[in-house]
Amino acid sequence: MKKIALALMLAAAGLAAHAAEVTVSAAASLTNAFKEIAVGFEAQNPGVKVLTNFAASDALLAQISKGAPVDVFASADQETMDKAQAQNLLVTGTRRNFVNNSLVLITPVDGAAHPTTLADLAKPDVKRIALGKPEGVPAGRYAKGALEAAKLWPAVEAKAVYATNVRQALDYVARGEVEAGFVYATDAAVQKDKVKVALTVPTETPISYPIAVVNGGPNADAARKFIDYLATPAGQAVLAKYGFGKP
Amino acid sequence: MDSSAWVALALSLKVAGWATLIDLVLGVACGWLLARKRFPGRDLLDAVLTLPMVLPPTVLGYYLLVLIGRRGWFGGWLNETFGIQLIFTWQGAVIAAAIVAFPLVLKAARAAFEGVDPQLERAARVLGLSEWAVFLRVTLPMAWHGILAGVLLAFARALGEFGATLMVAGSIPGKTQTLSIAVYEAVQAGQDSVADTLVGLTSITCIAVLLAAGRLSQARTAAT
Known about the structure:
Chain A has about 250 residues and is an alpha/beta fold.
């Protein structure tokens, strides 16, 4: 009898723990900020456990549209969130823009090439350029858009090394495997001892990050709380600390 | 069909082919060494050479990045001395695939050499053949069947290599984007129709390889 009671208690505890988990799928550029925010959110909401899942926004959308049990989706561009909305994956009225960011061109601190303009990327001393794959990574799309506007895309495309998310592009530059790369200003700040910002790249559309509660997620209640927490002074402080701007 | 899928297939075959060739030479040499020679550290060498089979591909990929990256000790030397860079090249993908598939050839070759009766080798030596001739005319022909089985497995494994390759060679369409990486990229980007094409092509290729392997071993059995 004791054993059965114990088993039931464990099962109940398991269910309770499950009910208090909130899964947050966030753009790779939010990795450091959201990990810290998760700790603060958990401290303020005892019993709630935040599970974070970081990847390129398009990859996260692909997971959600295939039925991944996600509660909160934060993407690095409007386009991906628009697609999610078009597929009816979001809870109506929960979408909002919560941070801004900017695109930068970075080089390794000890790199041989020193581009100061986008046009310098066409020069022969820049052999390889890391950027997110435009088909699946918002940072790559922003970069491609800016380069197309500057009529430099064909020159850069020939040297492009595509990353599966913006943090991989950052890693390629930090390791000195490429002469230059496109990442967000917040990413460059994470590795500022290894990469330096050559210039801030003007983008056609401002970079603002939308966030929303996912339809049919297991914990919609905690999902709303999590999004609200981002607007509190504690949440804002962390986002500002990592260099994100207010929308 | 999208021409990029064919480019990815051709690249996969090229990478797997070179990787298998390298594995064949090194695997036969190391397999023979482990099967026929007794020396200190033999077990350790065997363990180290088998490691790629059990280590996660990401660990291998990281080792390779640190080793052959532009700032790695070997990659840095290559870059400074010859101006050669292996990261983000198809040659880099070959190295990754060759290392991952190597134990399959090694294990098969070692077992095959151990299966060859040493008496026959001794007899050949008594008849005046040099060590090299004994290997080429007695040992290798008798072990060949087993080695070939390992080589085919290695080719299949190299064809499907993903983790270490992605870390070392990246994903540059037409240069390092193999079939398995192209599938991953397409799924990540939510391009299901592209993924469907690539997955179909991969499956057909693998079935063709297996059929060819089966045909080859049947022909061998019939010949003996």
